[in-house]
Every structure is written in C-alpha cells, then in structure tokens.
Amino acid sequence: MYAFEYQKVTTVADAAAKLAANPDAKLLAGGQSMVASMKLRLANPSLVVDLGTVPELRGIKADAGGVTIGAMTRHAEVAASAEVQKAIPALAALAGGIGDRMVRNMGTLGGAVANSDPAADYPAAVLGLGATVTTNKRKIAADDFLKGMFETALAPGEIITSITFPVPKRAAYMKFRNPASRYAIVGVFVADTAGGPRVAVTGAGGCAFRVPAMEKALAAKFAPESVAAISIPADGLNGDIHASPEYRAHLVTVMAKRAVAKALG
User: Fold this and answer.
1) Rg (CA), the chain
2) d(CA 26, CA 43)
3) 140-158 burial by CB neighbour count: b if 16+ within 10 A, else e?
4) Of 156, 184, 196, 247, which is the most exposed, with the fewest CB atoms less than 10 Å away?
C-alpha cells in the first residue's frame, strides 16, 4: 500500500469540496473493494475521504414513490429493514446474500453501485427495478447509470447520496454464486414493474445488463416457461477459471427461470 492522507467529513458538501481540491482523492464508503485494491497497489489515491461520518447519507425511507436508501446504508441494514422486507422483499433478500457477515456489515449500497463490479449483486437490482440514482448534482435513471466494467455515469466529484427503488408488483433475484467469495458467477433480477417486466443480469458481462427478449416474453406471459427457450449469445461474456462464456450464457436462462418462479411464489 502506498502512503496516503486520510480525512473524515461530516457533510456531502465537505466531501465534494475535498474532491474538487484534489483530483487524486478517492471516496471511502464500505472499503470492501477500494482497500483491497490499495493493498495490492492497484489504486494509489493521495487522499482518502471517509464518508462513514456523514449522517445524511444513511437511512431507509419507504413512501408512495418507492423505497429510498441512503448511499452509506450497510447491506446488513437493508437486509434487516422491515420497510424493505415489506415493500420489496427481493431487495432485502439480495442484500442478505451479499458476501459474508463481515462484508454485509461493512459494505454499502452506494459503494457497491458506484464501483460497478461485474459480479456485484446491487447493480442487478438497480437495473432490474428501474431505480433512480440521486447524486449531489442530479438524478440518473438506472438505464443510463451503468456504462461498463467499473464504469458508471458519475462525473468527477459526483457523489451518490441515495437510490430510490420503485415498488414492483413482484420480483425476485437468483444467483449462481462463487462458493468462496459469494460473488455472482451469474445473477438475474426479474421484476414485474408498472412499466412492464425487467430482467437484469450481473456476473455474466462487463457490467449488469438487461435482456429485452426475456422482458418481451414475460410481458406476454409472466411464467418460467416464457424464458426457458431464450438464450443469450456467449460472445463478449466473461470467461474465467470459474465459468466459460458459454456456461455463463446457459446460467442466465437457468437463473432467469428460477427468478420468475420465485417471484410467482
């Protein structure tokens, strides 16, 4: 790990000011990815700005507009929230299946979404539910937020403050997880929303993505058999020691069927 300066902040405005004053500064949310990168010397920020002491970034609120979760809300808090369990049980279940207990008690919603890890769980929920990402500068629709591997629409100095998830008619998330890290080798979030079905995949590509063919089929009939014969091309999918692109393509269909079945109860 390289030498760096560490500072705590108490407001979003203060954090934004420090980022503006130092182009090499990085925000610290849960630290589950960034600290590991720093230890491996893959990241070299001259300044680390800790958001853990910013009260306005934490909390969960459910209303007619959906469920709004502060960016610094821990995975364990989302999983245990009675409001989330009632409004969007699939989101609570997803949070409860992230990593292990330590990761869930340290990792944050905003950090996970801002990082856009190819195998992270939360991006599938953001995209699958058609969420809105609120920053200190604007609101960004889910379909416009995820750009690629570790790449999002966030501009330099832009900070996620909260994410609002619309309440679906029904939804579910199923993943084929790595047995060691519990990251998604492939995860599929299916939601029957007011605007129609949405199917979001994580773990298979450079970042979470939707499957329009499955969404169209589910709009005609929301049932597992509607997606059973739909496959996605393996070209461009991730391949590693855990799964080939072809196997990941196969798993997308399998996990989609299971997610629809689970959503139906």
Assistant:
1) 18
2) 9
3) bebeebbeeeeebebeebb
4) 156
Identify the DSSP state of 214.
Answer: H
262's tokens: 């689970």
Look at the block and give the residue holding tokens 């939707």.
Answer: 210
Q: Where are the domains of the chain?
A: 5-50, 60-264
Amino acid identity of residue 42, one-letter, is L
Which tokens in the block code for residue 125? 């929920």
Q: Compute the distance between CA of residue 148 and CA of residue 118 in angstroms, rounded to an integer.
A: 8
- Per the structure block, which two tokens stand in for 133? 């990402």
pTM of the model: 0.95
Tokens standing for 61? 């609120």
Architecture, CATH, for domain 5-50: 2-Layer Sandwich (3.30)
Rounded Cα–Cα distance for residues 222 and 242 (Å):
31
Q: Of 72, 79, 118, whose CA–CA distance to 98 is shortest?
A: 79
Would you say the C-alpha torsion 16, 68, 146, 194 has a positive or negative sign? negative
- CATH number of the structural domain 60-264: 3.30.465.10
